[in-house]
Design a protein that fits this description.
Structural class: alpha+beta
Strand order of the largest sheet: 1-2-3-6-5-4
Oligomer: single chain
Number of strands: 6
Number of helices: 2
Shape: elongated
Length: 121
């Protein structure tokens, strides 16, 4: 078991270094923050996607690369001042989007008595 964890360590460590290195190279790493992608689900990483984050902000991927990542609600590092979003080893150029956040409908509870009214005379 310990050998398996040690074998996985280099790739995990290298991926962490890539994220830290990219954020540090942006120059304004203190302006970066982590958020989760809420929409689209799954996130493909394809160009032109509008991305809604867990903090309610909306971004447009302007890279026009086609990755087909199929990630469900991944956590990303977003750097608004630099227009970058980082997911694992992938860095995306993003711009704020004016697309409205998808609305979620709240359904009220109903009872059969509300649905079927007795005939009125």
């Amino acid at each position: 078991m310990r050998l398996q964890r040690m074998a996985a360590w280099p790739s995990t460590f290298c991926a962490s270094l890539v994220v830290v290195g990219v954020a540090a190279s942006l120059g304004h790493a203190e302006n970066c923050y982590k958020a989760m992608i809420q929409d689209p689900t799954p996130f493909l990483g394809n160009g032109g996607e509008t991305i809604v984050l867990s903090d309610g902000t909306s971004w447009k991927n302007i890279n026009y690369q086609y990755l087909y990542l199929y990630q469900y609600h991944p956590t990303v590092l977003i750097c608004p001042s630099e227009g970058k979003m980082i997911l694992g080893k992938h860095a995306f150029d993003v711009v704020p989007s004016l697309a409205p956040r998808p609305k979620r409908t709240v359904r009220s509870k109903w009872t059969p008595s509300e649905e079927i009214a007795p005939p009125q005379k």
